[in-house]
Amino acid sequence: AAERVPLRFTDKDRIAFSGQSLVPVLVDSEAAVSDSWRIALHLEDRYPELPSLFGDRGAISVTRFVNSWADTVLLPAVARVILVDIYNCLDAADRSYFRSSREKYFGMPLEAVVADQPARLTDLRKVLLPIRHALKKQAFIGGEAATYADYCVFGMFMWARGCSTTELLEADDPVALWRERLLDAFGGMARSAPSVRYPDAPLHHRSGG
What we know:
The protein is mostly helical. The chain has helices at 36-46, 60-89, 92-106, 110-113, 117-127, 129-135, 148-163, 174-188, and strands at residues 25-28, 31-34.
């Protein structure tokens, strides 16, 4: 069980206690842990009596590679499709910060980043080729059941689902079918999360960050 605290981009002071300025931040007793990967490792070590997030501890090294790929290759590819959509969803107080920080990162205006969206979608679908090949042979990236390797990739699609009306995947793509399985997991927790594409979806769970 956890208390989830949603934050705006500019709410940096509320997480200053963690010694850095990015979400997510996990506060677990006396420990404050930032970054999704470090949080996963913390939970794995802190609660060894619970099922492994990685399937088993031997899978941590391979999962580290998947997580790095998702952060450095998949995330920018998704961003180049939905960056302006994210901007349009933001609270007015966050828009200036988001525009300046993302334009500095990409070296161009937000609108230029997402220009020629069909080409950007083609690029994204090419980036997904390794995952697509794996999912032709197995239900999840982690094998027979979803593991952290699945969720660090799935999070990118939840990001897009929450902020953009653009469909990233073709309906018969094995990645799309995998995404559907994860949207249905845990009683449809992810499917019921807030989304601009599905504003009328029943809200059973709200994630923060």
